[in-house]
Every structure is written in structure tokens, then in C-alpha cells.
Design brief:
heterodimer; A: mainly alpha; MetI-like fold; 11 helices; about 80% helix; about 0% strand; B: alpha/beta; Rossmann fold; 6-stranded mixed sheet; 10 helices; about 20% strand; globular; binds adenosine-5'-triphosphate; binds magnesium ion; P-loop_NTPase (chain B); ABC transporter (chain B); transport (chain B)
Chain lengths: ~250, ~260
């Protein structure tokens, strides 16, 4: 509601000349551009390139951060040994790593992925560690009492128990990865990617195209988030119902 | 054979159980009664190898128990926390059977049979959080029975079910255990139940818990809910155990009286 109101005000301000449309295009113009972009082959190619980097960054993040989080959560000594390193690395803004990533990776796709993976790792890692710590000791003891070894306890109790927390971490990581992929594209440039498109539009003084492309990135983020929330609700019905006090 | 030798445990400085000595023969059903907080669950967790007792030893067939003994099943007092909310009742019961090297189909069948025996055949597809406390408790009993352990530890396993179901479950456990030669250690606060179910009743003192009475229940088997409970011997035993348990809480009990009970 609030957002719609703001858009209406901007539109009116543009039409009445309160805002210079050369400076900020009309909302209706941007919406028209956005609709055109949706069927624009060139823009779609850029979009697909970004999505590809984003998708693989997320896959790599999960593949790295979940096992690492399990290890750190289950084996306390490993956690305390690596804590200084993690506390040093975590506050580094990933954007600051882009120049380094440019030097390290020739392939722009790999460069973007590496920055996104770096930023997206933290929410998954931290959530996995806390999820693992949160596992009911009795749930683990039950399996142990039946004679199962630590490996089985991790796979059959710790992992499923922590899964809702891990999923939340992945959802946060998905948003972070979108931001970082587009940022890396904008900062480092390249041949394809939504960030590259936005850059080109900017240097051509096409503010309407810039905003329209940016809006698509935002919409993509909202859609991904909504999709993951719905998936969590479905897959972790047991978790949500339990929290809701259904018994 | 299960032997507890001077089994002692302290949580930090808190003395939970004190030099418990107990021998349970193969196939025997031993009930442990004692006041709340006297260390019954601590005793059970020590036997299961889940905590390392600070003193004494647990021997199984003469060998000291260092970790969880093989062929053991436990029905925990906190049954709801010991069920997995992401698994259906059927999958919860079937999970331990993976250790038996059974196929998926065989596991499901055995789990279904066990659930049917505790009266939950129709609820096999339900999740723990869709079940009442009594139903969850029966799932955890079914899980232990389906596993066919040689040693079964039960911590107040019938606390949340109605009287009728409780009697059925008592008989079910006795039947299954007799059939498979399981040894049972059952913790209860119900004096009546301890005499009905047990071959022996062990009475613990209040904290730090130690054995103050060990009665052999010499009643004819198989037990029957109506006929066994009306036997003079049953009534007498129940009174004896009741007196010991009550004596404990009234602090009238001393070691002299323990001996008197033990020699009868
Ligand atoms: N992990 C623990 N840390 C510290 N103290 C504990 C712990 N577990 C149990 N205790 C204490 O040890 C004592 C014995 O506990 P336990 O659970 O063995 O008693 P219980 O006989 O099973 O009681 P109830 O009949 O109420 O189940 C209690 O006073 C309890 O507070
Ligand atoms: Mg207890």
C-alpha cells in the first residue's frame, strides 16, 4: 500500500514538473521499460548470466558451509580453534574483496561467484552451527542407546533437527548472493550480467532502463525469498507445527 | 546378566546415587521404585552408558560397560523428546531396526506389527506432534519392543496412559519379553505395578539413592490383571513394598528394617 502510494506521488510529481523527468523518469515510463525488458532477448541473456552465477554461488555455498557448520557445531575443539579466524574474516565487507577476486579469477563468472560465495557463506555457516547446537541431547541419546555410532547420529538426528535453521540460513544467503553477484557485475563490468546492463544503461544516460533493470533484480529477490519461505513451511511442517504448540 | 557394583554418581557436588548393588539375571524383570529425585533415571542412564558414573561399575555378562551396550533399548521418561518429529510413528519405530540389517519392507512390517500391538496401527502415519502424550508414549514403547533388545530399560513407561491401556501395555511387555527372553529393568512409582510386573522389586531410598529393599515377587505366571491382583500373596507383597516406599518418605526407614524385609 505504502509503496503504491509512493509510486503514485512520484508519478504525479513527475507529471506536474515538481521532479524533472530528465533527472528521474516517470514511474509509468519505468514500468513500460520494465515490461519491455521482460521480452527483450538481450536483457534476458544478461539476466540468465546473472542467475547462473547466483545459482552456482548458492550451490557452492551450501556445499561448503553446511558441512563446515556441521563440523564446527558437532566438534567443539574445531570450533574454538577456528573461532579467531572466523571472527577476523566475517566482518570483512565482501565488496572490498572484489578487486582481489578480479586478480584471482580470470573468468568473470568465477569472480562473481567467489564474492557471492564469500558473503553468502556466513548466514549458512552460523545458522548451521546454532542449529546443530540446538539439537535436543535426548534425541541424540536415543539413537546412541540403540547402538548407533556418531556418524549415524549426525546424519539421522543432528542434520534433520538442524535442517529448519539451515534452510533459513540458505534463504538469507540467497538474498545476499543476488546482491553480491549484481554488485560484482556493476563494479567489475564484463560482457554479460544484469549489472553490466545497468552500467551500460547508465553510461548511455538511460535512467529509465537502469531503474527498470534494477526493479527486476529486486523482484527476483522477492520471488526467490517467497518461494523459499513457502518451501520451508512445507518441508518443515513438523518444525512449525511444533513451535505453534500443536500436539 | 547385569551387575551393578557400588554404582555411585555425583552431578558436580550433588550426590545422586550412592553405592547401588544389584544383580539382574538374564530374562528377569526387575522393577525399581523410589521417591522422586532419588536417582532412578540416573541409574538407568548409567546402565545405558549415557553417563559415566563417578564411582563403581556396571557389568554386563561380566564385562564392564564402557559405552552403550549392544542389544539395548531404552524407553525414556521424557518419551516425547525422544521421538523424532520429522518422522511418522512408523518411521520412528522402524529407525532403530536399521541396525538389524533389515530391508525397508521388513522394517516397515515389523514397525507396523509393533504399533498394532500397542493399539496404534491406525495411527502409524501420524507424526508425533499430531499425537497425544499417551499415544507418543506408546510409540516409544513400540519402538523398544520392535527392536527386540536383550536388555530393555524403561523409565516410567506407562505414566501418561489411562488405566485400561496401562494394563494392556503391562501385559504386552511381559508377553513380548517372556517370548524373546528379554531382561527388563522397569522404573515406576506405582507400587501396585511394580509387584504385578516384576519378578523382583527393588526399593531405593531418597537421594542419594541406594537400595533399601529387594523383594522377590513369588507369584504364579503368567500374570493376569484380575486374578493375580486378588491373590493374597499379591496383596501382601504390595503392602510390604508400599510400607517400604512410604517408610522412606516418612524417614522411618533404617537399615535394620531393610534386612528384615530382605530375609523374608
Ligand atoms: N544432568 C544433571 N545435572 C545435575 N543434576 C542432575 C542432572 N540430572 C539429574 N540431576 C539431579 O539428580 C537427582 C536425581 O535425578 P534423577 O532424574 O535420576 O531422579 P529420578 O529418581 O529419576 O526422579 P523422578 O522420579 O522425578 O524421575 C535430582 O535431584 C536431579 O535434580
Ligand atoms: Mg526419572
Amino acid at each position: 500500500m505504502g509503496a503504491t502510494g509512493l509510486l503514485v506521488i512520484l508519478e504525479v510529481a513527475g507529471r506536474t514538473g515538481v521532479i524533472d523527468t530528465g533527472f528521474l523518469p516517470l514511474v509509468s515510463t519505468v514500468l513500460a521499460r520494465a515490461a519491455e525488458l521482460a521480452v527483450d532477448g538481450e536483457f534476458l541473456t544478461h539476466g540468465l548470466a546473472s542467475m547462473e552465477a547466483w545459482f552456482w554461488a548458492l550451490v557452492v555455498t551450501i556445499a561448503v558451509a553446511v558441512p563446515a557448520g556441521l563440523l564446527l557445531g558437532v566438534v567443539r575443539p574445531v570450533e574454538s580453534a577456528t573461532r579467531p579466524l572466523i571472527e577476523f574474516l566475517r566482518p570483512i565487507p565482501s565488496v572490498a574483496l572484489i578487486p582481489l577476486a578480479i586478480l584471482l579469477f580470470q573468468n568473470p563468472m568465477h569472480m562473481r561467484m567467489s564474492v557471492a560465495v564469500y558473503a553468502a557463506t556466513w548466514p549458512v555457516l552460523i545458522n548451521t552451527i546454532y542449529g546443530v547446537r540446538d539439537v535436543d541431547p535426548l534425541a541424540k541419546e536415543t539413537l546412541r542407546s540403540f547402538g548407533f555410532g556418531p556418524g549415524t547420529v549426525v546424519m539421522r538426528v543432528v542434520l534433520p533437527s538442524a535442517a529448519p535453521f539451515i534452510a533459513t540460513g540458505v534463504r538469507l544467503a540467497a538474498s545476499v548472493a543476488i546482491i553480491l553477484v549484481v554488485t560484482a557485475e556493476v563494479v567489475a563490468g564484463g560482457i554479460s550480467g544484469v549489472g553490466v546492463f545497468i552500467n551500460t544503461a547508465g553510461s548511455g544516460n538511460r535512467v529509465d532502463l537502469m531503474i527498470a533493470a534494477t526493479a527486476w533484480v529486486g523482484l527476483f529477490g522477492i520471488a526467490v525469498n517467497a518461494l523459499l519461505v513457502a518451501a520451508e513451511k512445507r518441508v518443515f511442517r513438523w518444525h512449525h507445527n511444533r513451535l505453534a504448540g500443536v500436539s | 546378566m547385569l551387575e551393578l557394583v557400588d554404582l555411585t554418581h555425583r552431578y558436580g557436588t550433588y550426590h545422586a546415587i550412592d553405592r547401588i548393588n544389584l544383580t539382574v539375571k538374564q530374562g528377569e524383570v526387575v522393577c525399581v521404585v523410589g521417591p522422586s529425585g532419588c536417582g532412578k533415571s540416573t541409574l538407568l542412564r548409567s546402565i545405558a552408558g549415557l553417563i559415566k558414573p563417578t564411582g563403581g561399575a556396571v557389568l554386563l555378562d561380566g564385562r564392564p560397560v564402557e559405552s552403550t551396550p549392544d542389544n539395548l533399548a531404552v524407553v525414556f521418561q521424557d518419551y516425547s523428546r525422544s521421538l523424532y518429529p520429522w518422522l511418522s510413528a512408523l518411521a520412528n519405530v522402524g529407525l532403530p531396526l536399521r541396525r538389524r540389517g533389515m530391508s525397508r519392507k521388513a522394517r516397515d512390517e515389523a514397525a507396523m506389527a509393533a504399533l498394532t500391538e500397542v493399539g496404534l496401527g491406525a495411527a502409524a502415519g501420524k507424526f508425533p506432534w499430531e499425537m497425544s502424550g499417551g499415544m507418543q508414549q506408546r510409540v516409544s514403547i513400540a519402538r523398544a519392543l520392535a527392536y527386540r533388545p536383550s536388555l530393555l530399560l524403561m523409565d516410567e513407561p506407562f505414566g501418561s496412559v489411562d488405566a485400561q491401556t496401562r494394563e494392556e501395555l503391562e501385559d504386552l511387555v511381559l508377553r513380548v519379553c517372556a517370548h524373546h527372553g528379554m531382561t527388563i529393568l522397569l522404573i515406576t512409582h506405582d507400587v501396585d505395578e511394580s509387584v504385578y510386573v516384576g519378578d523382583r522389586v527393588v526399593v531405593l531410598s531418597k537421594a542419594p539413592g541406594h537400595v533399601v529393599g529387594d523383594l522377590t515377587v513369588d507369584l504364579p505366571g503368567p500374570r493376569d490383571q484380575i486374578r493375580t491382583r486378588e491373590l493374597d500373596a499379591f496383596v501382601k507383597l504390595r503392602a510390604d513394598v508400599g510400607r517400604m516406599v512410604r517408610g522412606m518418605s516418612a524417614r522411618r526407614f533404617d537399615n535394620g528394617m531393610t534386612h528384615e524385609v530382605e530375609t523374608r
